[in-house]
Design brief:
With 249 residues, this protein is mainly alpha-helical. The protein has two domains: 96 residues, no CATH class; 153 residues, Leucine-rich Repeat Variant (Alpha Horseshoe). The protein contains 14 helices and no strands. Helix 3 packs across helix 5 and helix 5 packs parallel to helix 7. The longest helix has 17 residues. The chain is globular and about 55 Å long. It starts with 18 loop residues before the first helix and ends with a helix.
């Protein structure tokens, strides 16, 4: 890995990552850690036993100097450092990520920051994203289940190829998981429901119907999810956005 510094053009490495590559990245992260960013982890509900306290902007800055490197990403993940694992989302090569790797890393998720960053910047760019939504949506582990819905939300934002049927299936999974009262699961489910409902007018209507059914549930988590979704998806702002998108299409 090149020594981080000024802007450098990313290149694909031709040799496997070495211990010195990992050490160089960790040293850079340590130098850029701040007390304020460490305190922000606690403030935002992120638990990390090994953390330098590095802002996301600086993590992305480091990633740009490294470029894409699948082997280095694997080595960084093994360190267990919070910021090193965040870095993998921007360094790993989506085409080389395997289903087994996704399962293995997902089992390591121990906070929403790692979960959502990997879903939003890496996993949703693989060819296995939809399969993992199906595989993880009913798992017992809190952050594995959250990962399914963080990934579903990311697909709703980034997947330009899938049709409405895929997201209608996603709404079925949302409705099934909405009774899970664990904080990080219900927030992931809420995110997926709201983002699917902002994708187009047909999915907006379907998401509102889903939310209104949830609003009649005896389950407190389902009603909480419904309340936020109905308010957002029926708002004048969302309706304007959808109308403008329809007109543009």
């Amino acid at each position: 890995m090149r020594k981080p510094g000024g802007p450098q053009r990313p290149r694909r490495k031709k040799i496997p990552a070495t211990r010195s590559d990992v050490d160089t990245a960790l040293a850079w992260l340590e130098r850029h850690g701040t007390r304020r960013d460490r305190e922000n982890l606690t403030r935002f509900g992120i638990t990390a036993t090994k953390a330098f306290g590095v802002s996301m902007a600086n993590i992305q800055r480091l990633a740009k100097t490294i470029g894409r490197d699948h082997d280095l990403a694997a080595a960084l993940w093994q360190t267990g450092w919070y910021e090193a694992r965040l870095l993998t989302a921007f360094v790993d090569e989506p085409a080389r990520v395997t289903p087994r790797q996704m399962d293995r890393w997902c089992r390591d998720f121990d906070n929403w920051g790692i979960c959502d960053t990997l879903a939003f910047h890496l996993f949703d760019r693989t060819g296995f994203a939809w399969a993992k939504v199906d595989a993880w949506h009913d798992r017992r582990e809190e952050f594995v289940r959250r990962a399914a819905f963080a990934l579903l939300a990311s697909l709703a934002l980034h997947d330009k190829q899938s049709g409405d049927d895929a997201f209608l299936h996603g709404l079925e999974l949302v409705e099934r998981a909405a009774i899970d009262e664990r904080n990080f699961v219900k927030k992931g489910v809420s995110w997926a429901l709201r983002v699917i409902g902002r994708r187009n007018t047909a999915l907006n209507a379907a998401a509102i119907m889903t939310a209104r059914r949830l609003s009649r549930s005896s389950n407190a988590a389902a009603r909480w999810i419904a309340s936020g979704a109905v308010k957002e998806l029926t708002s004048a702002m969302v309706k304007r956005q959808l109308a403008a998108r329809t007109q543009k299409a």
